[in-house]
Amino acid sequence: MILLPTVENLSLAADVLRGGGVIAIPTETVYGLAARITDRVALETIFRIKGRPSDNPLIVHVSSIEQARGLVSALAHDSLERVAGLFWPGPLTLVFPAADTVSTIITAGLSTVAVRMPQHPIARSIIDECGSPLAAPSANKSGRPSPTTAQHVEADLGPEVRIIDGGPCRVGLESTVVRVMSDKLIVLRPGIITMQELRDRTGLPVDHAGTAEDLNGSPGTRYRHYAPNAHVVLTYSISEAFNFLAGGDARAMLLARPELHAEFQGQIVGSLTEHDLYAELRRADDLHVERIVVLCDGTVQCHEALMNRLRKASQDGNEQDSGT
């Protein structure tokens, strides 16, 4: 059920959460399926509704750095305040050693917890009103493209889940996930906040995740994600894209940067941008295409977060993606 973000509906959302229910909420990245972090049954409901594997940790959303301090080991408080103070609220998730009080359902049995403060005012308002940080993975069936509108959430989860409609998500890709060490940052999942921006603003060295242990410590890295029903094919030139569009009898759709659409007149085309990606993958399913041909030209190849999501949506997406 899609609800407008009125004062009454935001109060209702907080009541549902305090009562042990779940609510789909907007953030600037994607919509999240939220539950209070202290409610074991509600947390288990998230996994059941999504069909999410239990070994995939959840991101905890907070409305203040003080809330985050309660989730993180005291030894990491200084690092939390240093990095979070530069980027929050915003699309950056920080991974720290977890406080002993954090549920193992949230951490998936790991020693770390992933925390972020969303920029979207509706998300923070609901966190404040319900009086608790919220665990909130993307509000979609696991493996599907993440939802960037309330309508996407309802299409995946049905009308029984209450959804607060905050409009289309501004960013449209999941947050950058970073493990914060005492002397460096490790990017576990790329996002709109880039490695260079992290270096420039923190003054710390920034590395890619180099081990499976690092990658497994981040939500959204263990399994195939972001995949539509159609077969996704990545191509790297206009001629290669044409070959896949013309090959066989399968109904096909092209995803390319809008500047290149004129090269493909007569084809079903979609916009390949970070903001539009998930909506276009879902539109392809609505159009019942069997193949999505993605033109990863030089500009797209330089967009680390976009390429990360495209690789995971393609046939090779069930492999670990180091982000390189």
Secondary-structure topology with pairs:
Layout: E1 2-3, H1 7-18, E2 23-25, E3 32-36, H2 40-50, E4 59-61, H3 65-69, H4 77-87, E5 92-97, H5 104-107, E6 112-116, H6 121-130, E7 134-135, H7 150-157, E8 163-164, E9 176-180, E10 185-189, H8 195-202, E11 206-208, H9 212-216, E12 231-235, H10 238-246, E13 252-256, E14 268-271, H11 277-286, E15 291-295, H12 298-301, H13 304-313
Parallel strand pairs: 1-8, 4-6, 5-9, 10-11, 12-15, 13-14, 13-15
Antiparallel strand pairs: 2-3, 3-7, 4-7, 5-6, 9-10
Which fold does the CATH topology of the largest domain refer to? DHBP synthase
Question: Into which percent range does the helicity of residues fall?
Answer: 25-40%
Largest sheet: number of strands, sense, barrel closure? 9 strands, mixed
> What general outline do the C-alpha atoms trace?
globular
- The unreliable regions are 317-324
User: What is the count of DSSP helices, taking H or I runs of 4+ residues?
Assistant: 13
SSE order: EHEEHEHHEHEHEHEEEHEHEHEEHEHH
CATH architecture call of the largest domain: Alpha-Beta Complex
Tell me the number of strands: 15
CATH superfamily of the largest domain: DHBP synthase
Strand content: 15-25%
* Overall pLDDT: 92
Count structural domains.
2
The structural class is: alpha/beta
State the CATH class of the largest domain: Alpha Beta
Widest sheet, order of strands: 2-3-7-4-6-5-9-10-11
Distance between the termini: 40 Å
Radius of gyration: 19 Å
Describe this structure in words.
This protein is an alpha/beta fold and 324 residues long. It folds into two domains: 2-216, DHBP synthase; 231-318, Threonylcarbamoyl-AMP synthase, C-terminal domain (Rossmann fold, 3-Layer(aba) Sandwich). Helices cover 33% and strands 19% of the residues. The protein contains 13 helices and 15 strands. It has helices at residues 7-18, 40-50, 65-69, 77-87, 104-107, 121-130, 150-157, 195-202, 212-216, 238-246, 277-286, 298-301, 304-313; strands spanning 2-3, 23-25, 32-36, 59-61, 92-97, 112-116, 134-135, 163-164, 176-180, 185-189, 206-208, 231-235, 252-256, 268-271, 291-295. A hairpin with a 6-residue loop joins strand 2 and strand 3.
